[in-house]
Amino acid sequence: MGPFPTLHPPDPSPEEAAAIQTRLRASLRLERPVGAIRRVAGCDVAYDEDERRLFAAVVVIDAADPELPTLEEASVVGEPAFLYVPGLFSFREVPPILAALERLAGDVDLLIADGHGICHPRGFGLACHLGLAADRPTIGCAKTHLVGAWDEPAPTRGAASPIVGPDGDELGRVVRTRDGVRPVFVSPGHLIDIESSADWVVRLAARFRLPEPIRRADARCREDQRRARGSR
DNA sequence: GCGACAG
DNA sequence: ATCTTGTCGC
Hints:
Largest sheet: 8 strands, mixed
CATH architecture: 2-Layer Sandwich
Oligomer: single chain
């Protein structure tokens, strides 16, 4: 799929990047998706120990099949063009993820990113940036908390509690995908709402803590990384 | 001033 | 993210 439009000038300074997030935030649409969702792509990025190289991968699964079979996958090797700064994470990972998406033969109906969506200091996390650039419904599913107040959900699969922002507004949900495991932090990125985002994450994480598409993308990143290591 | 801080 | 040992449990 792609190519994708440019959302902002290249190589912004940290201050400019924060301003870009604040500006782009107004373009987000957080409504329930209208069309059928079948091809769901998980996205992830891995780094070498010295962070001089990165490996981005996307894995597309068939959400219409209960077995969630892999339909297609693609990946790229590259170099980080932005430092890791909490809050500016998307400027580091969106470029390589888009590059991987461009290598897919087919289109996707939904993206799931390994990070937050609107549950972010300026309401514009990785899933927002990625979703806006790709113009596809995108969910943010993070393993740890970033911003917002929340209570521990019940210890059973499917339990969830709201993540509340400074103004008392709901930003996302803390979702328990499996009995007795740590919950994940879910928030919409673009073209999807909080409710649907939480539902999709539970549905796609039937066997493990993280949604299947993200797990497979993570596995693909590691495979590529392993190959690159072995051949040098 | 101090702690928190996606990957 | 990555590094890194053992340990508990299915």
